[in-house]
Structures are given as C-alpha cells and as structure tokens.
Write a structure and sequence with these properties.
By secondary structure, the chain is an alpha/beta fold. The radius of gyration is 17 Å and the shape is globular. It is built from eight helices and eight strands. The chain has helices at 40-47, 69-83, 95-106, 125-140, 153-164, 196-204, 220-223, 225-238; strands spanning 3-5, 10-17, 21-26, 49-53, 87-93, 111-117, 182-187, 208-213. It has two domains: 3-121 and 178-238, Rossmann fold (3-Layer(aba) Sandwich); 123-169, no CATH class. Helix 2 packs across helix 3 and helix 4 (125-140) runs antiparallel to helix 5. Strands 1-2-4-3-5-6-7-8 form an eight-stranded mixed beta sheet, sandwiched between helices.
Length: 243
C-alpha cells in the first residue's frame, strides 16, 4: 500500500506511470480516491503519470490532530514534492473542487491546469446550513450525517464545515488570482451542487472555460466519461499542456 509520511500525517496514494507532469485526482466528500484507479490506464496513456490520493483522515490515510482547507491543500503539495511531480493537471470533484481552489491559491506554480468538477466557490445560506448540519449530525451519530468510521469523523466534520464556510468566506473574490487554465464542468441534472456555482466560477476565473453537460448528474467525469475525457484532452492541447 503506497504511503508517504509527511510528519504530521501519513497520506495514502496510488499512481501509475512516471514523469514530471501528472494528472491528479482529488476526491469528493463521500469517500477516498480508490475508485479512480479504474481510470488510470486512460490518463496514463495521455499524461504519462496519474495519481489519486486520500485526504488526511479519509480512506487509508492516517488521522491527524488538525484539519483545515490549507492543511488539506498543503498535504497535496507535499505529496507531489515527495513524488517528484513538478506540475500537475489537478482535477477536483465536488469537495475536491473546493480543495483544488485552495491548492491553486497557495501553489499556483504547481498547476499546469485545473479542472473543477461539480463544485463552487461559494454557497448560499441554505446550502451552508445543510453542509454544517451534515458535519454536526455525523459527529453526533444521528440521522442526517454520513456513515464514516469513528476515527474519521473529525475529518468529515472539517470538510463539511469547509464547504459551509464558503458562505462567509467565499473564494469568489480571490479567483482572479488563479491565472492558470481552468476547465469548469457541471451537470445539468446535478442535484447536489447544481450548475450555478460553476457558472459563477467561470465568470470570475481569468482563464476559464465552462462546459455544462446537460444530462449529467454530480461528478461529470463519471457520468459523462467519454465526453469528459475528450474535453479534457482538447482543453489541455489548446493550452499547451499536452502536445
């Protein structure tokens, strides 16, 4: 089981291929990155290297004494350092889309491009309260929470609060600083995040392209696999990430 000891946490990851550029997948709130392994063959063929990983306190990664968005993003930067990845196309879905915004703000030089899938840079009052209560209900072990191992509750709570906090501390005013190419994708039938947040991000990112897959649900990469793959390759070639 590939693991990297970062001192304050041990991060579980899986990878295929090699090289200084990688396609990196950042999972959503519902689980770790294990499920993305089935995508490895395709992305390795085009990028040379593909990586998926578990956030601290998720999946096979260890728990930690502290959790925050900067720490989650910092873990990714340190993981890439340890793996010798100089730059990456960083794909975040749902919660992962929040994480990669923080990563780009803190480590823009590492981003050859970003893909924000079924996510947002801010939330309204209703969504904020919903995500906050998901975390609190999980901590209390009552209906309305998520079913995670007891030792991983603190991580779930921190991530749910991170999304809820986008109400009072949105990324939207800071998106102007993310100057790398960003592909924003959304599903027209997404009942979790909707497509409105994707439209908002695309309007505020200086180098963005927006694509709404009208028949897709939450997580375009899995609902519209062929269309998503073709779009990513086209986008990366357009911006010189791939030849």
């Amino acid at each position: 089981m590939p693991e990297m000891d970062l001192g304050d946490v041990t991060i579980h990851y899986q990878q295929a291929g090699e090289g200084p550029l990688a396609y990196v997948f950042c999972h959503g709130l519902g689980g770790g990155g294990e499920g993305f392994v089935e995508e490895f063959d395709f992305w390795k063929e085009h990028f040379g290297r593909v990586i998926t990983w578990d956030n601290r306190g998720v999946g096979a990664s260890s728990t930690a004494s502290k959790y925050s968005l900067p720490l989650f993003a910092g873990d990714l930067a340190r993981l890439l350092d340890g793996l010798g990845v100089e730059r990456a196309v960083v794909h975040g879905v749902s919660w992962g889309g929040v994480l990669v915004q923080q990563f780009a703000l803190d480590h823009l030089e590492r981003c050859a491009a970003m893909i924000i899938d079924s996510s947002s840079s801010e939330v309204n009052v209703a969504a904020s309260e919903n995500w906050f209560h998901i975390g609190e209900n999980t901590k209390a072990g009552v209906e309305g929470g998520r079913d995670v191992p007891s030792e991983q509750v603190d991580s779930l709570v921190a991530r749910a609060r991170g999304i809820a906090g986008l109400r009072e501390h949105p990324y939207t005013p800071r998106l102007k600083d993310i100057t790398c190419p960003v592909l924003v994708v959304a599903g027209g039938k997404d009942e979790v995040a909707g497509a409105g947040g994707s439209v908002l991000m695309a309007r505020n990112l200086p180098n963005a392209r927006l694509e709404i897959f009208q028949e897709s649900g939450h997580g375009v990469y899995s609902h519209e696999r062929d269309g998503y793959r073709s779009l990513v390759l086209e986008f990366c070639r357009e911006h010189g990430v791939l030849s």
